[in-house]
Amino acid sequence: MPEVSLPNSPFDALIGSEWISDDPDDARVRLTMTDDHRQPMGIMHGGVMVSLIESICSRTCARAVLPDNRVSMGQNISVSFLRPISDGTIEVRARAVHRGRMTWVWQAEVLDPEGRVCATAQMTTAIRDAPEGVDLSSLSGG
Amino acid sequence: MPEVSLPNSPFDALIGSEWISDDPDDARVRLTMTDDHRQPMGIMHGGVMVSLIESICSRTCARAVLPDNRVSMGQNISVSFLRPISDGTIEVRARAVHRGRMTWVWQAEVLDPEGRVCATAQMTTAIRDAPEGVDLSSLSGG
Amino acid sequence: MPEVSLPNSPFDALIGSEWISDDPDDARVRLTMTDDHRQPMGIMHGGVMVSLIESICSRTCARAVLPDNRVSMGQNISVSFLRPISDGTIEVRARAVHRGRMTWVWQAEVLDPEGRVCATAQMTTAIRDAPEGVDLSSLSGG
Amino acid sequence: MPEVSLPNSPFDALIGSEWISDDPDDARVRLTMTDDHRQPMGIMHGGVMVSLIESICSRTCARAVLPDNRVSMGQNISVSFLRPISDGTIEVRARAVHRGRMTWVWQAEVLDPEGRVCATAQMTTAIRDAPEGVDLSSLSGG
């Protein structure tokens, strides 16, 4: 895959995402939990987990289709929460199980520091041509 | 419904949620978009929308079952993204379409400043007895 | 909307679907429960409900885009089961809450004979151009 | 796991399901496509795939919890359709990725005769005590 640079994601900076891998077969992002990530009962807010899943799938898809001057955006996400997370560094892993011309479908899971699956997800990202006149290839290359 | 006070939600404070209504028939939360909420292309990160949906459903459910010394937590969420949001104040509206003993099911939508539906969601919150020895009624009243 | 005739759906015939309305604002299909629709415990199999939801959304979408020589197919469905159904005539109602160029998004619900909501669903149908050389307009008109 | 016998599923008989394995780590069901399974365009109706997924997850869960005098029912299912199926014998594979006291969560996929993934799903089954006075252990044993 050609090297591409994506603009930063301000919301990921706010949350504290740490990109590990943009490989569509094994995409990964990490987050070290702070008090900012808690919901009222003190455990990690489900929105933090969903945000990470969204980010890793969207970002990995965007990187993969950008050299063809195409863009990607989230279309649908479904998440099951299995187990609460109280602290430590979590990892989200995602894999593109379908790579169509118009949509990619992803499976993802959130792992706590002990490697236990705390949430599982299925996400669909839509792929479209870049708006007319926009050349995204300027973002390619290092 | 008796008056109940829930502890604050640090993640909602980080995002900037503004609680409007905790009525299970018409729960509402608002958010004024800032640059912190953007994804790399400049539009609102889907995780922001999902986090608000999660918060309003979970919070409203928790308030409703807390007087019975029961707790609520997110179990499942499914969101479709329909239209990008670029700025302004958005509102999330949720309604409990099923209120069972063990689960509540919610429908929610995200509206942009023009009132257009930008995302629709279905969420399940699980209801459980409070852990033994815990009396949540101390949070009631006010 | 121009009158269009869709080919029959053999699976709907097997199940026993009765089409009531193909209006995207208020699409409806009915089914009178027989023993064939039961799962092992004697209640209606969830697959029957999901099949009806799928059928009414896909069929209504197909009818709506066929005059433009476009086709529709199910892309994603998410269903919550709220209450068991034991007998009688059920109705599924669906409404297109988003009608984009590439996808439509639907909300649907399954009602038992007393009008209680027994399942709620969200479905995405994908819209694509008909395969090259295929003219679907032959299906239009009475 | 003790040997348990479940009552037949009339809807599965109508569809033509063939049970292969009730192992929660690798549950499987097969179906040989007939014309009855088609939607109007001639491909397999999505409802057929969803019905098989529902059946294999529900049945496998029911078998697993029945010796404890507990019952299982479908609570939520989310399916992405990736690729149409035209004929042959398909297989649905499911795996319980979470086995809680109140809910189990499953991942499932539908494979066409060439082994290609045509749909992926996530399903939640609810586990509850059998209604008072009902002894399901009579269904146990060969």
What does this structure look like?
Four copies of one chain form a homotetramer. The first copy, chain A, is an alpha+beta fold and 142 residues long. Chain A has one domain: Roll (Thiol Ester Dehydrase, Chain A). Chain A contains two helices and six strands, in the order H-E-E-H-E-E-E-E. A six-stranded antiparallel beta sheet of chain A has the order 1-2-4-5-6-3, with helices on one face. In chain A, a hairpin with a 5-residue loop joins strand 5 and strand 6 (117-129). The first copy, chain A, starts with 9 loop residues before the first helix and ends in a 13-residue tail after the last strand. The model of chain A has no long low-confidence stretch (mean pLDDT 92). The A-B interface holds A 6-15, 35-41, 45-48, 50-52, 54-55, 58-59, 62, 71, 73-81, 84 and B 6-15, 35-41, 45-48, 50-52, 54-55, 58-59, 62, 71, 73-81, 84.
